[in-house]
Amino acid sequence: MAERMLKFTVTPRSTPAKREVAERKGDFHEIYADFIDAKASEQASRCSQCGVPFCQSHCPLHNNIPDWLRMTAEGRLQEACALSQATSSMPEICGRICPQDRLCEGNCVIEQSGHGTVTIGAVERYLTDKAWEMGWVPPLQAGPARGQSVAVIGAGPAGLSAAERLREMGYAVTVYDRHDRAGGLLIYGIPGFKLEKDVVERRTQRLADGGVEFRLGFEVGRDATLAELRAKHDAVLVATGVYKARDLAVPGAGSEGVVPALEYLIASNRVSLGDAVSAYEDGSLNAAGKNVVVVGGGDTAMDCVRTAIRQGAASVTCLYRRDRANMPGSVREVAHAEEEGVVFEWLAAPRAVTGEALRAAGLRAARMRLGSPDASGRQSPEEIEGADFELKADLVIKALGFDPEDLPGAFQAQDLAVSRWGTLKTDFRNMMTSVPGVFAAGDIVRGASLVVWAIRDGRDAAEAINRYLIAHASADALMAAE
Asked: What are the start-end ranges of the H helices in 328-378?
């Protein structure tokens, strides 16, 4: 193994080649080329096989990264694929969109020694794409039928991961989602240049082929109440995510031309999928020829600015109230955006949307400085008096984060308890909500977070539901015996 591995001292870090900026700005295809077999093996061989793999412990799914890197370096690709998929329901998706710089790669031991991290995400993507190409991804095999059913509300990463595990355990699973395609934000929120949609669709098709039933265009509260679903199924999992956009609290925020990030991204993704979107066609959610300002500093903001570039915006500016070092978005995504022509106004916050007749034409912003740390330990931004400036803005996109919708009201379930943030309250021991037999997982519990955490939560919820249903089946059997 020593000959095949530990190459980090002689082999430099190398990522898959990026497409030229001029080319990639013109479409919504992924920007990275695929690793060739030899390059994937070479990069995997840089792993130091350290005694305490911090990459694995900092992965929410605790993927067995060192072992599948070793297998890749040794050419044992099918084994590596199987090991990668043993702990993750969507490894090729995590390989594309996980912020590896903050998780596995950010904690790589050889990075601490100055040799450059192992390209874990790129190898993970390569392995699973190779598995699909070679037919190594096995069909979803349902376990022996248990005669019990589970409803999953939400076809995003948490719901899909739970549905897969529950089906493997032998439960009948029905996934309900208000959209017309399964995938949640993987389909409608994340742009194609980060995650092409056929990558998601082959995963959802695998679930459908394995017996998971999808009820799309189904809105809980409109088409059935939570209580009605609970009566129909033996257990229910709520995995809706958080979709309510935080508002821009400045004068003029209600003007035409000020739009929420998710509405903008959903419209763009629908167009890329071949749908007719009237708000895109009439220009309301189309950046073509416009001066665009995106307010926010997270990954959603990066998705918006890079989408606007591809739609042919005249200019694209990202306004963020803290500095680059304190930006919550991925460092890698910021670099991509800068390469593509996005201008960043650091330490700047919106003061007012300007224009005439309630139509946005510009944005007045205040210059900021970082003051004392707040309760979270981050320095609080403070306005600098007399340092306002103006930006042209025909389209202002609000990317300030997301809050939960009012699920007790929407689901007609006032007994569904929520936290002071509006997220669903669950018992941390079993992931059950205040309604018996109703569980919750993903962003609707933890707040807006990463896809990899949603996958982890969905898998954990499936295990919790399984324990609950087994216990209830045993109790029912005892009662029947008496």
From this structure: 331-339
DSSP label at residue 268: H
Q: What is the pLDDT of residue 127?
A: 95
pLDDT digits (tens, 9 = 90+) for 74-107: 999 999 999 999 999 999 999 999 999 889 999 9
CATH topology of domain 249-402: FAD/NAD(P)-binding domain (3.50.50)
Question: Cα–Cα distance between 352 and 363 in angstroms, integer?
Answer: 6
438, β-bridge pairs = 236
* 316 closest CA partner among 340, 299, 347, 332: 340
pTM of the predicted structure, to 2 decimals: 0.93
pLDDT for the residue 476: 62
Alpha carbon distance 439, 425 (integer Å): 10
Pairwise CA distance, residues 402 & 181, whole Å: 21
Query: pLDDT tens, 315-326?
Result: 999 999 999 999
Alpha-carbon span 165 to 169, nearest angstrom? 6
Sort strands 402-403 and 244-245 into parallel, antiparallel or unpaired.
antiparallel
56-to-293, 318, 458 alpha-carbon distances in Å: 38, 34, 19
Give how far Cα 480 sits from Cα of 299, 474, 476, Å.
54, 10, 6
Domain ranges of the chain: 7-134, 149-242+404-481, 249-402
pLDDT of residue 481: 61
Cα–Cα nearest to 454, from 236, 152, 108, 207: 152
- Which residues in the chain land under pLDDT 70? 1-4, 474-482
Strand partners, 245: 402
438 three-state secondary structure = strand
> Do the domains 249-402 and 7-134 match in fold?
no
**If you ran DSSP here, which 8-state letter would residue 135 be given?**
T
Residue appearing with tokens 């890698």: 332
- Residue 217 three-state SS: coil
> Can you read off the two tokens belonging to residue 412?
């007609």
What's the CA gap between 48 and 10, in Å, rounded? 12
For residue 392 the two structure tokens come to: 């042209």
Q: Is the domain 7-134 a CATH 1.20.1090.10 member?
A: no
CATH class of 149-242+404-481: alpha beta
